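USER: Study each token:
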Amino acid sequence: MLGLIVGLLAGCIKPAGIIGNIPQVDNDFATVFIARKAGNMQCGRWDGEKYIGGFLIRINDTDFIRLGCGMKTEFKIPVGKTTKISSVSSTISDHYYLEPEKGEKIYFGMDCNFGACWFGPMSRIEWQQISLTCKEVLVIKQ
């Protein structure tokens, strides 16, 4: 059990930010919004100002970004083809296949509760509630 806890925490201690290629889009795109709730459960280590550690988000099985606690972001994905988005840092790897329409807005949230972490789709209103806890924005320029 201790090994599992140490392993989960070690996976979170990597720095948040962009770590892979940013999806290339043209005028036909959808926007994905992700917010990771602020808190201290499985948030990595405290550096005196904020928690350092990020959950890995992948696009089409390729590392893309790491989101820290209290961080939100948005990015564009192309329409007309399937895009796989997943979080492999959560307790169970969560994979979602998106087939967006032009201009569509897709919302995801992340959180940890008593050692169980999740990543999943949600409504705009649910996303807005989580994003209110976010004090940091990961800017992804496309």
About this structure: Helices lie at 2-12, 124-131. The chain is about 15% helix and 45% strand. The two ends are 42 Å apart (CA to CA). The first strand starts at residue 17 and ends at 18.
